[in-house]
């Protein structure tokens, strides 16, 4: 295996792993956004009921729901802090795949050309 083929193999594996990591960050962000919206909406409804009824039970549930939605928002922000680094690492890994694949293709083309015309590799003189 040539050096370029080895680099292609390693960079391809790394690119696949980093793509999965990036997709995990995106999927987690979508999930957290969904739950923040759900718990935020129910917290708003409970806060409106609390203001209307002044019931301590409803107000306690509203505060609990609001704090739960805030915790989801904090976790979502922590996950999204990895979005740009994951995107950059994934892009660089796929760039390495493309460049090493091009180098492997050029190397194979040169070898094929030398097999068909041995004088191409010999110095003239």
List low-pLDDT spans: none
Work out the strand percent.
under 5%
> Describe the biggest sheet?
none
Please give the domain count. 1
Kindly describe this structure:
The chain has helices at 3-53, 56-80, 83-116. Helix 1 packs antiparallel against helix 2 (56-80). It starts with a helix and ends in a 9-residue tail after the last helix. Helix content is 88%, strand content 0%. It has 125 residues and is mainly alpha-helical. It has one domain (3-110). It contains 3 helices and no strands.
Short synopsis of the structure:
The protein is mostly helical and 125 residues long.
Key traits:
125 residues, mainly alpha, 88% helix, 3 helices
How do the strands and helices of this protein lay out in sequence?
Layout: H1 3-53, H2 56-80, H3 83-116
Helix pairs in contact: 1-2, 1-3
């Amino acid at each position: 295996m040539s050096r370029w083929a080895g680099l292609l193999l390693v960079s391809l594996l790394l690119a696949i792993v980093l793509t999965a990591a990036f997709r995990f960050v995106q999927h987690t962000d979508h999930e957290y956004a969904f739950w923040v919206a759900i718990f935020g909406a129910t917290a708003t409804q409970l806060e409106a009921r609390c203001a209307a009824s002044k019931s301590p039970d409803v107000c306690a549930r509203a505060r609990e729901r609001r704090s739960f939605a805030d915790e989801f928002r904090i976790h979502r922000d922590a996950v999204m802090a990895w979005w740009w680094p994951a995107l950059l690492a994934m892009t660089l890994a796929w760039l390495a795949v493309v460049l090493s694949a091009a180098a492997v293709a050029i190397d194979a083309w040169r070898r094929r050309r030398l097999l068909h015309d041995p004088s191409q590799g010999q110095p003239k003189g």
